Amino acid sequence: MELPEILHFAQTVMLTLITARGEKIGLHHFSPIRPLGCGDTGSVHLVELRGTGELYAMKAMEKSVMLNRNKVHRACIEREIISLLDHPFLPTLYTSFQTDTHVCLITDFCPGGELFALLDRQPMKILKEDSARYFWFNIFVIIDIVKQSLPSNRRRSRSQPPPLFVAEPITQSNSFVGTEEYIAPEIITGARHTSAIDWWTLGILLYEMLYGRTPFRGKNRQKTFSNILHKDLTFPSSIPASLAARQLINALLQRDPGSRLGSTTGTNDIKQHPFFRGINWPLIRNMSPPPLDVPLQFIGIDPTAKDKKWEDDGVLTSSIDLDIF
């Protein structure tokens, strides 16, 4: 058994011991260590299971915010998707519970932090091509795993999995899921969309990792959307990138979804692209990342920090009951 599997087993056992005593796992079983990040509906915290030393990440989604922004359905689907997944590239959902104010998901703690934080620390905020390829194909594999695990995909062909945007109900609104610079043209125009939107997003991601910015960024949302729909794709000559990398980006950023790489026979088209020549896909979980100009800065516990309580940060403030579970 490898070290990650041992840690996963230990964390599972510790939580199982609590439920075996007849207790219902809740916020009081965890001590807050430090905040890890925040999003549009809540925050993520590094937490410790009291008395064990075991560390987890806790995503706390604020109920009032989810109600105000119509995100309740999305939260339900997110929890369902995570609970279905079991892969070393993905964080495990160990348990979930509600407080008066929050819905909390307890998952693996990933001490390496966020990819964009790592990218921001690199010279010129770009990755060398080997590193960009490594992180990109790991994300690509994760997306493929998630797609094939979605309940709605059981009735679909493997070559035509549903888009990850399935986690957001389709409504006539001006709101969008995700960062606007990554949104595919068919989302902007309101056209019927398929899993091809995910390949567009990955094309934008690869471009940003190699060039330090997204290709269609404008001075405001309206200009960004206009660029996505009409601006020519260009590659800065000041930053070297291989022909294969530029060809892959161009193939993923076709405005016509039917012409986009991956839209016909799915992931196999992408895996066979020359950019991935030499990659042994069945063995990628055993690959080591290439060296970075600025290495990972692992997140840990500050031994000098004072003990915190949930109430100290005002995390729990109001009382709302949601039918999430």
Automatic annotation (TrEMBL):
According to the UniProt entry, where is the signal peptide?
none
> Which keywords annotate this record?
ATP-binding, Kinase, Nucleotide-binding, Serine/threonine-protein kinase, Transferase
Q: Which residues form a coiled coil?
A: none
Q: Which reaction does it catalyse?
A: L-threonyl-[protein] + ATP = O-phospho-L-threonyl-[protein] + ADP + H(+); L-seryl-[protein] + ATP = O-phospho-L-seryl-[protein] + ADP + H(+)
Please state the Enzyme Commission number of this protein. Answer: 2.7.11.1
Does the keyword Transmembrane helix belong to this entry? no
Enumerate the residues binding ATP: K59
Q: Name one GO molecular function term.
A: ATP binding
Q: Which domain of life is it from?
A: Eukaryota
What Gene3D superfamilies has UniProt attached to this entry? Phosphorylase Kinase, domain 1, Transferase(Phosphotransferase) domain 1
Q: Which InterPro entries does the protein's record reference?
A: Kinase-like_dom_sf, Prot_kinase_dom, Protein_kinase_ATP_BS
Q: Which residues form the Protein kinase domain?
A: 30-276
Record-linked PANTHER family: FLIPPASE KINASE 1-RELATED (PTHR45637)
Protein name as catalogued: non-specific serine/threonine protein kinase
List the source organism.
Trifolium subterraneum
